[in-house]
Amino acid sequence: MEQLVGHRIRLWSAVLSAVALLGLGLFAGRSQAATNVYPAGGSGFTANAEGWTPGALSCTPIALLCTAEAAYDSGAGNPPGSISARTTVTLNLISLFKGNVVWNSPQFTVPIGPIAGASLRLERAFAAGGLVDVEPKGTYTAILRDLSTGSAVPLFSEEVDKADSAFAPRSATASVVGGHTYQVSIEASTAQSTVSLSLLSGTSDLRFDNVGLRVETAEVGGGGGAGGDGSAGGAGGDGGKFSQLSDARLLALLRSASSAPVVLKGNRLFAKVSCPAAVGRACRVAAQGMLNRRKAATTKRTVKVPKGKSKQIVLRVKPKAKKQVAKRKRHLLREAVKAGSAKATLYRSRALIRR
Question: What is the arithmetic mean of pLDDT over 218-239?
Fold first, then answer.
């Protein structure tokens, strides 16, 4: 009898352990939280501006030699390295000045899938510099632009002064949609708050560091669940991954990939086209230079690009478009991409280099 009871106890313990392990496996297969920071893991500016570019710049009154500049500062930051909205006044007696600077982040695409939450974080500091006697004040607004819909949402604004010389964090929640392409903009201004009674000159800096949009997604794991683009999961292995690639997912992957400048040599345009590794298979890319979305500037070239690779192609500029292309600083490239059954067309403006 004692041996029988012991056997039953061991049997039930084994059954309960198996049930517990199965429950954990099912839970893990349903969803796993993932957090990504955009653009490109967040912008710490340790070596350069990391793809951030100046937008509109203005400073008034111009007659009194007031200038606004979107500057990179390698010596200031947390750790050192930051971008700055810099205002310089070289001659001002009694007029009030105001400098305006816009910084725009690289574009990035949020992966398709359920979004658990999002927030924008940055650190800012204000250095009154040589303008401290007129008590300059800085103001800035952090904006999230949805380039897929054309909307722009201000997330937070703040006014700073000479007391805010140390880098301090600020953050706000944001709303994002999987598959949409976004850009972060910081609109900053520095203005004089008291009238100078003597000759005035100097520089002030409103600096920003560690800027990033934190997005929490629920990544579905295991077989039989939803795919990363919200589609139903297929069979395991590479074949299952290929069947899940939708047109929207392919477009999102293409948008998130970085793009190299195009090079103009005579009447030939050299451009690199890529197939993101996340596509999971080779891409067939038909590329063409455009004057606008309707009017072609070059011949068309179709190439097959392995997953995770890039290829350089040569496009011949059409005689009627040569003068227009030669004058431009950026060039529009149309890429019609096919990967398996998924198709997507991407228009991307690239920097133009002449050689």
Answer: 39
